[in-house]
Design a protein that fits this description.
Distance between the termini: 53 Å
Number of helices: 12
Radius of gyration: 24 Å
Structural class: alpha/beta
CATH class of the largest domain: Alpha Beta
CATH superfamily of the largest domain: Ribonuclease Z/Hydroxyacylglutathione hydrolase-like
Shape: elongated
Number of strands: 21
CATH topology of the largest domain: Metallo-beta-lactamase, Chain A
Largest sheet: 7 strands, mixed
């Protein structure tokens, strides 16, 4: 790739990771990703905002080969996909000062072994002048580490948001050209790493909106030159609003749980409820996380393995507990051969979910007509709860 202008005196230096399919050995990347650094040239000084993942250091350095001087290197977030090339950049530009938040200082020194003499800590709201441009720093903690911050250039009405509003997309586009595609990728990104901090993110949204920006330049994915839609999306995601939806992750070993799940899906659909069902043997866990952003109810379906839930269900319950979605209701269904404590064990895995349990149903062997009747009752209980919350229009 080559450096391209997004605003007068501001270039994006995007390094595109087309082939990457997993992040942090955990997060699926079906569309790859990109790591965006930004070069800001003022009349008196030049700054580079963030860097790239160490794997793509050559792509970054090639785009900087004609840049003789950088005075400030801004680290908005210390995770290696943004800070991974800072050490090399400080060697290449010995006059540069590394700028970061107070909490980032220790992380950068310990993770990257940066000399403390090269670091300048900036406070929330502090500014650095580049001449005809200004870098104003805005602390945005827990988006998604405690040390994260954004950088605002008032002269260009441009906000460098780092992971805030990011989307894992490998693309040659500088600006958003397909809002629907970016919306889904950004929602996946929010669901996978931001959702546990939505209460803090709501406050950070209010904080950055005090700056009159026309451009949001994130560190993953394309730049927003019409940022209204992504701001509205995040306002919705962090709000307490829920949808008339059920997320139903399940797995089946010999077919009993699958038959129960499929009957329940149909029963819920007859009640007018949208169901997002995920067979955990083949599911993209990111898709499941996306569905958890809005849904009112989580229903888990599991067979029994050695008295407890299937390991895939165990993992999913732990993940949901970690992500802390704004669910209000839950239920557990499943099957067993000779004995089970699956319900008790799953319940113990989700202490962070402040949910009302609408029902549990664990059946021995193949489901019977009585089992299906109980599943119909569960669907009716879910529908009533959703109606009481005015999630269903009657």
């Amino acid at each position: 790739m080559h450096a391209r202008q997004i605003s007068k005196g501001i270039d994006i230096i995007a390094t595109v990771h087309w082939e990457r399919r997993l992040f942090d050995s955990l997060i699926p990347l079906p569309d790859g990703t990109s790591y965006n650094a930004y070069l800001v040239r003022g009349t008196e000084a030049t700054a580079l905002v963030d860097s790239t993942d160490p794997v793509l250091r050559d792509d970054l350095m090639e785009q900087l080969q004609d840049v003789d001087q950088i005075d400030y290197i801004v680290s908005q977030h210390s995770e290696q996909d943004h800070s991974g090339c800072i050490t090399e950049l400080l060697e290449r530009y010995p006059q540069a000062t590394l700028v970061c938040s107070k909490k980032a200082e220790d992380i950068l020194i310990t993770h990257l072994q940066v000399s403390a003499k090269r670091v300048r800590v900036v406070e929330d709201g502090e500014s650095i002048s580049l001449g005809d441009k200004t870098l104003q720093f805005i602390y945005t903690p827990w988006v998604h580490w405690p040390e994260t911050m954004c950088t605002y250039v008032p002269e260009n009405k441009c906000l460098f948001s780092c992971d805030f509003f990011g989307s894992h997309l490998a693309t040659t586009d500088v600006f958003v050209t397909d809002q629907a595609k970016v919306y889904e990728a950004a929602k996946r990104y929010y669901a996978e790493i931001m959702m546990p901090f939505r209460q803090i993110i709501r406050k950070n949204l209010e904080k950055i909106e005090e700056c009159p920006f026309d451009i949001i330049a994130p560190s993953h994915g394309p730049v927003y030159d019409d940022p209204g839609f992504i701001l509205d999306a995040h306002r919705d995601w962090v709000s307490p609003n829920m949808k008339n939806e059920v997320v139903l992750p399940y797995i089946s070993m010999h077919g009993s749980t699958e038959r129960m799940v499929k009957h329940l899906i149909d029963a819920l659909a007859r009640e007018g409820i949208t169901v997002h069902a995920y067979d955990l043997s083949v599911t993209d866990i990111g898709k499941l996380a996306i569905s958890l952003v809005d849904a009112a109810t989580l229903i888990v379906g599991t067979p029994t393995v050695q008295v407890g839930p299937h390991p895939a269900v165990y993992y999913t319950a732990h993940l949901a507990n970690m992500l802390r979605p704004k669910l209000k209701y839950a239920a557990i269904i499943g099957s067993y051969g000779w004995g089970s404590k699956a319900i008790e064990q799953i319940s113990g895995l989700i202490p962070n979910l402040n949910v009302e349990v609408l029902g549990t149903l664990l059946h021995k062997g193949a489901p019977t007509s009585e089992t299906y009747a109980e599943l119909d009752d569960l669907a009716a209980a879910v529908a009533k709860a959703h109606r009481d919350d005015e999630l269903i229009v009657t």
